[in-house]
Amino acid sequence: MESEPDLHALLRSLRVWDTELPAFDPAATPAEPVPLFVEWFAAAVAAGQTEPHTPSLATTDAEGRADVRTVMLHGADPDHGWQFASHSGSAKGRQLAARPYAALGFYWPVLGRQVRVRGTVRTAPAEVAHADLHARSTGALAAALVGHQSEHLSSYEELDRASQSAWELAQRAPETAVPTWTAYELAPNEVEFFQGDARRRHVRLKYSRTEDGWAKELLWP
Questions:
Q1: For 50, phi and psi rounded to 5 degrees?
Q2: What is the mean pLDDT of residues 179-196?
Q3: Are 73 and 84 within 8 A, CB to CB?
Q4: What share of the chain is helix, strand, coil (3-state, %, to 5)?
Q5: β-pair partners for 69
Q6: Per residue in 37-66, pLDDT tens?
């Protein structure tokens, strides 16, 4: 009989950033955070980072209890903030309706970089959500058509039947509307860029929104 893995031994065996990491000069950064985010995102893609577009989304429920999950980024620009989508009736959808404030956390270990985004969340017009969903794959539409996200599932067989039916509908009628599918826009109040350093002299640059635009400051690691 195999023994259980020793978690603490495994943790102690791991090393972080045993590689050459890029330099980061905060003095050479743009006045607003979105251009720097796009630059870092492109660098993560070029470096071969797996799924760089899947940040963690943190929310709180009506009682103030924290929750987190991984989502897919759908865009980022100065006018609409950081964009993602989900069903309005999902756990995250209900939480955002009750407390429309959230945080996104991107981690790109291949470059030793993190980006943290915090701010208020608003819903985009329904036509934006419709266009976003129908510009994606048949599988994405089929998954949205299944619905019931975060609800109780009685058996895997029930999911299998619903998924098959949704897939057939998505192929037969690719413009089918999904009324609960909602596009969200996170309008940032703060955006932090973290560049790791092998000697733990990490560089942290924080953008904070002001009445006149954005203020930048360095943070201790």
A1: -70, 130
A2: 96
A3: yes
A4: 30, 30, 40
A5: 57
A6: 999 999 999 999 999 999 999 999 999 999
